Amino acid sequence: MRKLILSNFQAPGDIVMLTAVVRDLHLCYPGQFVTDVRTACPALWENNPYITPLEIKEDNVENIYCHYPLVHRSNEVQKHFVYGFIEFLNERLKLKIEPTAIKGDIYLSEEEKEMPSLGEMASLDVPYWLIVSGGKYDFTIKWWEVNRYQQMVDYFKERICFVQVGEDKHHHPLLNNVIDLRGKTNLRQLIQLVYHSQGVVTPVSLLMHLAAAVRAKPCVVIAGGREPVHWEKYEGHEFLHTIGKLPCCEKGGCWKSRVKALHDGSKNDKPENLCVDVVDELPHCMDMITAEDVIGRIEKYLKNEEYETTENQLQLNR
Q1: For the chain, how many helices (H) and strands (E)?
Q2: Residue 53 burial (10 A CB sphere; 0-12, 13-18, 19+)
Q3: 162 and 283 assigned to the same domain
Q4: If we measure between CA atoms, which residue out of 277, 242, 244, 232 comes closest to residue 259?
Q5: In this structure, is residue 188 part of a structural domain?
Q6: Distances in Å between the alpha carbon of 229 and those of 32, 145, 168, 222, 224?
């Protein structure tokens, strides 16, 4: 059997996609590989049945730093992000891996699945949804207006408890009338929160990837025009985008990084990486998405949930 150590030290969302290629490698070539990984997010690999500890200097171990060059053709090629690492590994190892699912591959222990949910621990009378109100400073173009998030939270105050999450070193403006867990969870705890939640509201982010990978969850993604829909959207997600609606994203995602320069020495401050159409400090594509748009997509999920609950009750009463 070939022994592989696959590595990547990019953002956690990228590593979720790396979990997919490990899964698909083993499902497409059962019994032919032993795999280990080196990433900045070991919590994403806990309980993973495809991981076997290997030493880098061990005999016959191949060390491969994984990339996804497919992203540079994402506007032209109608493929999801999950294909990125797969195509790289296929070319590198002369394989024919195919995705077995368009999502990452995250595992929870039985104890994690059975542990009391946040709703139970907090004695909530309504389901809880996770919400991200900002993001990382390297991609400020993904940020939406905080007042619109607040409008959405206030609208559902009698029906949903929103739990705000996000790393404390990133930009996550505090919302009112939420459970504030910003900077209070580690990655494993975030995975557990996703598993036990009813849904997720987020820009294109790690939380979006987890909503698909951990356990299929209702997810409203405030995406704008930065990335092509087919590259990021998961089945069952409501993906609010503006691709084709503005000159800057008429034929695909603009892939810009920031709304304006932050003067922090980052390459994302270069003129070619800055938004070319800003409205009131928001990218025009994000400004076009209203609080009512997001509210309407959440309502769709809630109405479907009510319908399924009613149908299940009818079945029990027959």
Answers
A1: 10, 11
A2: exposed
A3: yes
A4: 277
A5: yes
A6: 35, 21, 29, 11, 10
Give me 224's structure tokens. 């704008």
Reduce the secondary structure of 269-306 to three states and give it as a string. Answer: HCHHHECCCEECCEEHHHHCCCHHHHHHHHHHHHHHHH
Give per-residue pLDDT as tens, 267-302. Answer: 999 999 999 999 999 999 999 999 999 999 999 999
Number of structural domains in the chain: 2
Q: Domain check: are 189 and 305 in the same one?
A: yes
H helix intervals, the chain:
12-28, 82-93, 110-114, 118-121, 146-155, 187-196, 206-213, 229-232, 284-287, 291-317
pTM for this prediction: 0.94
Q: What is the distance between the alpha carbons of residues 281 and 144, in angstroms, rounded to a whole number?
A: 10
Q: What's residue 122's pLDDT?
A: 87
pLDDT of 255 reads: 98
Q: What is the mean pLDDT of residues 232-237?
A: 97
295: domain range? Answer: 115-310
